[in-house]
Write a structure and sequence with these properties.
single chain; 134 residues; alpha+beta; three-stranded mixed beta sheet; elongated
Length: 134
Amino acid sequence: MTCLRDADIRQPLAQLAAGACPGAQVLHEVGLERGQALVPSWWRVVLARAEGGGLVLEDVRPALDNPSPSPGATVRLLWRPEMLDLLETVGAARGVRSASKGRLLARLIKVLPPADLRARVRQVVAARGDWRLT
């Protein structure tokens, strides 16, 4: 996640807002228009402002599905042992059990269709237990 700050004074506000909205582009009203122009159209945008001694978060733009997700970026969410486990599950681990993470990534992209790969990566990340998916 990227958090744009327009001044050091607003840094604590931005950090608090970013922690409250994981996976979103959190902007202060001063940088809202410019910030929205810098991020892809499918990213969620949240406006953060101080009000009454507290923090107010307001959804400006909802998150949409990425229209062209990269299989490589998707697989990079996995740790090496998770990549190997996934290859074992689909019967494609032979010859790469001691390979680098890069070779495991390439094999996963080769043997699984993109939609299946995304679904399986999501399952693995969710199964970590201490991670939150929104």
